[in-house]
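Quick board copy: two proteins, each given as sequence then tokens.
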Amino acid sequence: MDEGLRERKKRQTRRRIADMAMGLFMARGFDQVTVAEVARAADVSVNTVFNYFGTKEDLFLDRQEEVEDLQSRVVRERGKGESVVAAFRRDFMEAIEERDWRYGLNEGADVFGRLVGDSPSLLARFRELEHAQTQRLARTLAEESGAAPDDLTPSLVAAQILETTRLLSRHATARTLAGESWAEIVPQLRSQAEQAFDLLEKGISGYCVRV
């Protein structure tokens, strides 16, 4: 058996295990499903599951590496003359139109969000994931800008941009969970996103001046 075929079979096995796990999680909730049940559904041993996934949470976040790198890709792939904020504005607006999963705007994101919200261990893991995303984006910004090692600017910019997109995404998910349709959500989400990126782009020095 050549190396290419072995790797392909390993990818297929990993995908089957992850798909079976997610189906069980969505049907019954993350905390109510055991790794042994996932193994039976995927027709593999428990040891095989742990060969591919270090923890039960890894089964839920099987695309973690890709997710961690999504925001850095926005920076690396921005157009000539395009600022980082402009690149994220464009990418987020495109995601709204496409209902893309990269910002949690896809169909089913409400179910995903409910599953996470119902599980303390998943909530903790998502906080770790968000921290990893912010750190990776900060490193990318430092590389792209040539920042000095002790320059805090890349970390400050990464934190501001990602918290902005997360707040927008969470707001959209909350409205979906409240029963609103995507058609009802989109106009205000677009407006709020434009306002948020305007604040990032122009600064907040003129916001909420006391009179």
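And the next:
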Amino acid sequence: MFEEIDEKKRKIKEKRPLPDKTVESIREKLMLDWTYNSNAIEGNTLTLSETKVVLEDGITIGGKTLKEHLEVVNHKEAILYIEDIVKEKEPLSERQIKNIHNLILKGIDDENAGVYRDQKVVISGAEHKPPEPFNIKPKMENLIEWYKNEGQELHVVERAARLHTDLVKIHPFIDGNGRTARLLLNFELMKNGYPPVIIRNEDRASYYESLDKAHTTGDYADFIKIIKETLNRSLDLYLELID
């Protein structure tokens, strides 16, 4: 099921250490694409080029809200945090997930940043209904317990995809769940030697449909397929530059 992905990863590993400039250029491209698309999925109206200007130069774009600018800056900081904990080989924990979320909402909604929600919510356009607030803490504990046990028996791509899907299903935060889940997905991939995946804004309809299908039926196949396709794109980017 994941043979093609693993073969591409092996080819990249054989070429290591990669040239510093190549590594940095790929990192910058993936950070830009990841930040732009993850925010755009949630309604941020900054274009790819505008996101690049905010990321690299810190310039304010006329006609855009402060919130949209903060979403770009915060997402970059969350990626840097993930890179740090990958280097430190920290195991997955609720604390890490809350830290990621705290960075996502910093300066936007400080009261709820890194804090599990205490209100009922609905997911627009989805059939699935998130759990009541009093169920969030035990469900998050169960998610971490699953990850440490049954999850370790899965291929890392499937494990990362299910982590993302199940976090969104719990919907532990009042806002920022999607961005946090996509960061968590890539944290799991990156610490296992894979590049981050970029779920594109233009694919958000199929992305949301596959999530809701997993939430309501327990069938993760469509979502895992999306992650495989996006990971292949990231791996191909490396291969094109090093071949």
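Board note added afterward: The chain has one domain: 3-238.
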